[in-house]
Amino acid sequence: MHLSACQPFKLDLGWLQGQAFRWTKREGWFYGIVEGNLIKVRQAEGGIEFHSNASEESLKPLVISYFRLDQDITPTHKALRKAGLGDLVDKYGGTRILRQDPWECLIAYACSRNNNVERITAIVDALATRYGECQTLDGVTCHSFPSAKCLAEVGKEELERLGFGLNRAELISKLAQDVAARELPLDDLTHCSHEEARCRLMKYPGIGQKIAACVCLFSLHMDDAFPVDTHIGNGLKRRFGKEYTPVAKNARLLAWARDKFGAHAGYAGQLLFLEGRHSKGG
DNA sequence: GACCAGGCCGCTA
DNA sequence: TAGCGGCATGGT
Questions:
Q1: 3 state DSSP class of A78
Q2: Which of A63, A87, A118, A271 is the most buried (most CB within 10 A)?
Q3: What's the domain range around A183?
Q4: A57-78 residue pLDDT tens
Q5: What CATH number did the domain enclosing A215 receive?
Q6: Domain end: A199, A219, A239, which one?
Q7: Rounded distance in angstroms from the CA atom of residue A57 to the C1' atom of nucleotide C10
Q8: Within 10 Å of residue A26's Cβ, how many Cβ atoms?
Q9: Rg of chain A taking only CA atoms, in angstroms
Q10: Three-state SS at A280
Q11: What is the pLDDT of residue A279?
């Protein structure tokens, strides 16, 4: 099925994996899970083409939302050019901030501390392969991400065995229990203020400013969230002379970003991230 | 063994 | 509030 997208829009593994980790590319198609369904997508004239074994008609609104095909990106680009990121808009303007499933997003970024993208992908994928639902599309196999209820029953020892490490296993086990019991009603956080969502997430030891911001940005529809990692910090320093501390707790930095990029801070960060990873050869 | 990955936390001033 | 150091966890 063909879906048109507000332009510019360009699928690329760089920004897909930079946000959602588990997308793969085979023979020109990108394979990934959207709302529990394995789909394949590729760039098409004026938008994308996607296919699934599930009803494409019923998946259509989900796919549009996931890739934000209906988002008019022009105001964002205009704001970022004004803020001095015009070259990045030229380079990475086809990027979108995805609307991921909050549960998988939370777990993936909860693994991001002391870790790299490849390893995060590997352990999240190991979890899905072991406990998710196996799906096949045109010979490509992919597993949906296991539910919170499922992971709550798995237990932290098993998570540790899967390669999460002791601390991450404990954190993820706790998150699974609370999400399953709706102590942490993830879907409801979409309707909270950015501040409240952030605080709810940061109550968990192991989830700080950066990870909470990633979850807010990539799955809770909060485009003004501004996660600062090493790449983004380096980019800020290079371009704007901003001091960056690894804790990213620098309230002044966040205030500066809010002032500079406003509602588009998330996009600014994402383009800086892509530049940072790209320049490192990734 | 050093250094690096999309950090977090607690202590101190 | 910010600055600093300790800790984390495999891989190269």
A1: helix
A2: A271
A3: 102-219
A4: 999 999 999 999 999 999 999 9
A5: 1.10.340.30
A6: A219
A7: 43
A8: 11
A9: 18
A10: coil
A11: 73
Q: Domain end: A188, A219, A250, which one?
A: A219
Q: Confirm if A152 and A177 have CB atoms less than 8 A apart.
A: yes
Token pair 């956080």: residue: A189
Q: Please give the average per-residue pLDDT across A49-53, as a whole number.
A: 98
Whether A185 and A240 map to the same domain: the answer is no
Write the single-letter amino acid at A193: S
pLDDT of residue A168: 94
Residues 18-77 (A) near nucleic chain B, CB < 7 A: 18-19
Q: Do A106 and A67 share a structural domain?
A: no
**Chain C nucleotides near the protein (CB, 7 A):** 1-6, 8-11
Q: Which pair of tokens denotes residue A119?
A: 């390893």
Interatomic CA distance for residues A27 and A135, integer angstroms? 18
pLDDT in tens, A170-225: 999 999 999 999 999 999 999 999 999 999 999 999 999 999 999 999 999 999 99
> How far, in Å, CA of A84 to CA of A71, rounded?
22
Number of domains in chain A: 3
Domain CATH code at residue A66: 3.30.310
The enclosing domain of A271 has a CATH number of 1.10.1670
How many angstroms separate the CA of A228 from the C1' of B6?
8
**A159 and A110 part of one domain:** yes
Task: Identify the pLDDT of residue A280.
Answer: 60
